[in-house]
Amino acid sequence: MIFDPESGLLDRIDTMRYQSEENPDRLGWHNRAFNWRLLNGTVVPLTSTTQWGDAAPWATWEIDDVSLNVEVSERFAAFG
């Protein structure tokens, strides 16, 4: 975990992971957090990316809402 020295917020998480069953080698797996904002009383990264090695981002995530302490037991019962 790497934190931004100015803001103290998470900048990225780097680790080595297996990408597939076919490839026995572990590759760099990088997750970046961007665009930190206050949303419904919580500071969150509105954008994050995941990438393998030096490749272009494999996925980009956008957060549009945050809810805390929400009852989820019915959802788990329905979908596991």
Notes on the structure:
- The protein has one domain (2-64).
- The protein contains one helix and five strands.
- The chain is mostly beta strands.
- Strands 1-2-3-4-5 form a five-stranded antiparallel beta sheet, with no helix packed on it.
- 9% of the residues lie in helices and 50% in strands.
- The longest helix is centred in the C-terminal third of the chain and has 7 residues, at 73-79.
- The chain has one helix at 73-79, and strands at residues 2-3, 10-18, 26-39, 42-52, 59-62.
- It is flat and about 40 Å long.
- Strand 1 (2-3) and strand 2 form a beta hairpin.
The helix count comes to: 1
Q: Count all strands and give the number.
A: 5
* CA-atom Rg in angstroms: 16 Å
Structural class: mainly beta
Number of discrete domains: 1
Distance between the termini: 30 Å
pLDDT < 50 stretches: none
Strand order of the largest sheet: 1-2-3-4-5
Order of helices and strands: EEEEEH
Overall form: flat
Q: Name the assembly state.
A: single chain
Strand portion: over 45%
Largest sheet: 5 strands, antiparallel
Average predicted confidence as pLDDT:
92
Residue share in helix: under 10%
